[in-house]
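Review form for a predicted model. The reviewer records the input and the model, then writes brief findings.
Reviewer: anonymous (R2)
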Amino acid sequence: MNYTFEHWHGIKRTEQFNTLWEIGMLLAQGEALQTVPMSEYHASQPQANFKSVRDRAKSVFFGGRAVRDPDVLKFLQSQTFDIYKININANMSKQLEETTLKWMKESPNINVNGLKDFQFLSMPGLNTVLKEFIMKNKNKRIRVMRGEYWYVITLLKESPVEWKYMDEDDIQANDCVIASVPFFSTMDIPDLSFLDVCDKLDVPVLIDLCWSALHDNVTLDVNRKCIKIVTLSLCKNWPVETLRLGVRWCKEGWYYPSDKLYNQYRLNSELIIRLMVNFKANYIIKKYKSLQHKWNNRLGLQPTPLILTSRITPELQWFNQHRNLGVDWSQDNMMMAGLYENEDLINKYFNWN
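Model under review:
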């Protein structure tokens, strides 16, 4: 069942439900008083009054954001930039490419092969690249798997294009595909057998690796005829959501040649390099894996291969990660970042060891 606010007073409250609700109130009050890490968005920043705190508590476990790790926050707060020096660094794109590939290669949980045949580029946010891909293929039918990232679905609904879920029809020659790996709904590696059909029919595919550094094991060969763009958004790795950090790899004909010269986003690139040098790709997994297991046991949740989420039981559907979006599928995941960030505060409040 996809609960709405109208269902709030009729929900069956188990012990686990009441525990999560009390934690939600605790964290929402902390946000209102600015004693716990804050959201980047005004709608998720409660005011210091009961109604605002209560409303925020109902959505504390929503979304899919980065852990506001204290060491990463401290690092971000310590950074200073020589804007002029960064602006004239003509080697920035090459430095970013080398740093990104090294960062991925050194991670035991990321194994992506075949990128050497792509042009590396900085990325002005995944949303911009998705819009470019959709508009480039505006005369094609766009295909996505049911349960794809909510923003992709929203963007397709707002765009003047034809689109269908993969399970609604076979892939045709006039289609193109957008797919996240790992897959957003299950947080696991999806069935990619459709790529064989895309290769055969020359159907262009965009692969998004947004969750790859936060997943236990991502193995993917992108050396295929059909894969034209590979994106790596980094706003789930570090709490820099509104800076739109990321990189992309594009096949010939799938980027504007002028992008190599004019769209280098050097300040963002400098920040990405610094973060990658200081925090390995599997940093969040190594630091918080034991906490994921601890909270799963405490609340009776099931693990997912993604460090940011755990699978909820039916009686906890109110806390479904994207229940508030009204999408036409249910992923049954809960966002765990708030529990990781505030472990000490929560333990002290409940007098837990």
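Findings: The longest strand covers residues 227-233.
Further findings: The radius of gyration is 21 Å.
Recommendation: see findings above.
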